[in-house]
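Re-run requested by the PI after the first attempt was lost when the workstation crashed. Everything re-entered from the original request form. Ligand of interest: calcium ion.
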Amino acid sequence: MKKTLLTAIIALTMATAGARDYNFNEMTYSPKATEFLLNTNDDAQGVTLRIYDAGKDGKMLKKVEMKRDKKIAGEWHATIKGDLKGKFYTFDVKYNGNYMGENPGIFAKAVGVNGRRGAIINMAETNPEGWDGGRRSPLIALEDHIIYEMHHRDFSIDPSSGIQHKGKYLALTEPKAIEYLKNLGVNTIHILPSYDYGSIDEEHLDQNRYNWGYDPVNYNVPEGGYSTNPYDPATRIREFKQMVQALHKAGIQVVLDVVYNHTFSIDDGNFQKTCPDTFYRKNPDGSWSNGSGCGNETASERDIMRAFMMASVKYWMEEYGIDGFRFDLMGVHDIETMNAIADMVHQNDPNRIVYGEGWSAGSCAIPSEIMGLKANIKRMPGIAAFSDDIRDALRGPWDGDDKAAFLGGVPGYEESIKFGIAGASQHPQIDYSKVNYSKEPFANNPNQMIAYVSCHDDMCLVDRLKASIPGLTEKDLIKLDLMAQTAVFTSRGIPFMLSGEEMLRDKKGVHNSFESPDSINHLDWNNLKRYPQVFEYYKNLIALRKNHHLAYISDPKFNRTSTAGALEFLPGGDCLVVYRYKNLNELGDKWKNMIVILNGNNDKRTVKLPKSTYTIVGDGDVINEDGIYTLTTDEIIAPPRSAVIMHD
Ligand code: CA
């Protein structure tokens, strides 16, 4: 397996004319000696390696000048004899007579507290008992993914969670957490950034600070704040692996949110201290380009950054058993790099999921034609993008929390809803000129679209509904919430939900909770008792998707040869979208056709149907696959603000 991957990487490296074959193994430990290696710009004048007895402060044990590689100008080496296990190290690179400052290198795999020094450990000793290299049962098909986006702290920090290791990797090893996720039915956990980031002081975890973690420091080390001991370099690594192990054992896959598009700091960052100006893009006037909206943007199109991203993704797969990747602000990266990564990820398993935000947060210093944008997804066939089309058509536009759309009874979003139901793929019944953002299908097939109505960004669904629909009663709030997710989970795209929506979570109206306290971000597990019908609906909705998953088969070659499971839109109206998955029985399903009615209006609507005997399985309040009631008819009353699901 490794050989094949390596071959692929070599082939890719060679395909880029003149590219250096970067070796990112900066520290290789053995009991007899530890080897160090660092990549710098070619004009580096020297690299000083220091060995310490602690991850911070402590005594310097050794200071060594590294030697320039005989063939590669920007590669430096040093070997230190003796057993250095448990010690720490820094590099300090000299340019133009000045040292850039001590740092752990760009590819540290273990670090001390707050990631300021690299740590010398024996990686094999970080493996938990029974670790099998992060392997798991074969991955489910792409279209069967049900993604649950979560933050370690949100999920378990509140006492009501009943989870012991609150806010830690180990929370996801506890039976209570695992059983909860299995019971809900999600099969892919997407964890918010979990590599070492900068905004939480790991020396003062008692302050209980909160952050999403979109401020990378060391890309290839788990964040210390989620471990039980950020001072001991092996602990965070072992506990992260325990988390992956427990989730895999439960048949749940793990997706890592990766944020290669920017770093916490330029001048105080490892990239800049090691290879000045090489990892970041600049504007023509010499200022830093800021396509990330976070003060800088990395340059994926350059050899070293491309090689770095590929090596990093590969490392998380091989060392930690990570199953898929979500690229933050993928639009900042270039298409060639993203395709090279997707090819590598899919080398041994085409069902590994790769998706990203198909936009940037500001203008980038590369042409939009080569950016990893949603509009360019057709040129990135192994990658999916979030559909802001269906998201905003449901909840309302991104530029105003008080603006409503379909869920608020505002007409004009019907074609955008249909666009999302069809998985952003070509469908003859969609008028693309009326779609809110995409004026043509952006996906080659529905597996390239992530269907969602909310994520960590912006308001969560409950807050958005309250903010955009004045005077909403709790009863209607719940109905609209359930209808929104019904659209998501009956879409042909890959469904994605924010953790806690199934508990009717809210964030007290906070729009951007990236550093809000736990009182805003935490899940209140008492809500499961307050709104048991909400959890029950989500659970049954997910089960319905799974049980009739053939309805959502999105393999293009399949759809071309058969009408079985085909998607057809039936006549609707303002804020009324009706669709049918046809001839499911030809696929072995007990149901022939399944119909979904989404009525965003605050009054009931009569919907004309092909005459048949229908069994209603979803009435807006509950889903029951055994049937709520049956009737023979050619029309049905769709209740206000509700989703109806039925079959014949
Ligand atoms: Ca950190």
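Saved to the shared folder this time. The first strand starts at residue 27 and ends at 29.
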